[in-house]
């Protein structure tokens, strides 16, 4: 899975495989090729059960019927373990894929890991980012987003609300 640059709009998403849970909570390894022919919202978030990440995940959960009716699959990715994802899913009734990227390799490919500023400090970590993908190509990218209201903005920009 060698990628020389950060993926951006118009780029083909390379196949990658991560462990995680499906919308029913079943554990497994999921490869992007499984979703290649679908419309996908792939979003990266820093940590399960934190305020911003919970807000964003619950917004995706609450809008999932609209997205599914348009054939869109939602996939959330964070460095958290599969066990953490299971607890997160159960606590908040999440109904979409949650994948574990513990070494942040997939996040790096998408440019969703790196330096970020928080409260005036520069740190390295997951940069909250969302990608809309059709037929394996990135159609739209939102980088360094704010969790609150983000899903609403995504739906509006995609012409879905």
From TrEMBL:
PROSITE patterns: THIOREDOXIN_2 (PS51352). Keywords: Antioxidant, Disulfide bond, Oxidoreductase, Peroxidase, Redox-active center. It catalyses: a hydroperoxide + [thioredoxin]-dithiol = an alcohol + [thioredoxin]-disulfide + H2O. One of its GO terms (cellular component) is cytoplasm. GO terms for molecular function: thioredoxin peroxidase activity. One of its GO terms (biological process) is cellular response to oxidative stress. Residues 7-160 form the Thioredoxin domain. The active site is at residue 53. Belongs to the peroxiredoxin family. BCP/PrxQ subfamily. This is thioredoxin-dependent peroxiredoxin. It comes from Aquifex aeolicus.
């Amino acid at each position: 899975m060698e990628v020389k640059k950060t993926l951006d709009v118009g780029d083909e998403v390379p196949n990658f495989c991560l462990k995680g849970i499906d919308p029913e909570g079943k554990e497994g390894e999921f490869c992007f090729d499984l979703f290649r022919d679908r419309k996908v919202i792939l979003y990266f978030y820093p940590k399960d059960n934190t305020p911003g990440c919970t807000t964003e995940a619950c917004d995706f959960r609450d809008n999932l019927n609209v997205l599914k009716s348009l054939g869109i699959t939602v996939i959330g990715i964070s460095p958290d373990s599969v066990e953490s994802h299971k607890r997160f899913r159960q606590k908040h009734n999440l109904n979409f894929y949650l994948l574990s990227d513990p070494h942040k390799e997939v996040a790096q490919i998408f440019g969703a890991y790196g330096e970020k500023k928080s409260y005036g400090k520069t740190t390295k970590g997951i940069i909250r980012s969302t990608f809309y993908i059709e037929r394996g190509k990135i159609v739209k990218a939102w980088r360094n987003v704010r969790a609150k209201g983000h899903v609403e903005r995504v739906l509006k920009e995609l012409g879905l609300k």
